[in-house]
Design a protein that fits this description.
Elements lengths: L5 E7 L3 H11 L9 E3 L4 E9 L5 E12 L7 H6 L4 E9 L2 H10 L4 E7 L5 E5 L9 E5 L10
This protein binds cobalt (II) ion.
Cobalt (II) ion (CO) binds next to β1 and β5.
Length: about 150
Amino acid sequence: MRLGRLNHIGVATPSIADSIRYYRDTMGAVRITEPFDLPEQGVKVCFVDTPDSTGEVGKGTQIELIEPYDESSPINNFLAKNPAGGQHHVCYEVEDIEQAREWFEGKSKRILGPTRIGAHGTPIFFLHPKDMMGQLTEIMETAPKDQGSGH
Ligand code: CO
């Protein structure tokens, strides 16, 4: 397996609406997607685009804002410990998700649940932070046409 692009940083928030205002008004973000629900994952999601190295907005690393969808959301514990929200996970792209799964299994890294379809519509899985230098790590297969910021 070869490490791919840093696709996004997941940021948990008690309010996507407040976070959108923060990224727009304080951070100067010019492109933020409409929030949408991912009930299977227990979250509402939206993406803040950052430019790539050419300055083009929409091809760079994103901030993934995640708000709990309901009381059983997997991010409720995180928000109980971090009421203002905060950095929740990092997501790297790989070319082949099955190969990546085998790679991490071979290194005895704990994979959290099955491979599933993530917020970008491509297969993803998560790795246990205690096996990953303290970081909840999402691995995502690169989107077929481009590189991940596509919706
Ligand atoms: Co993510």
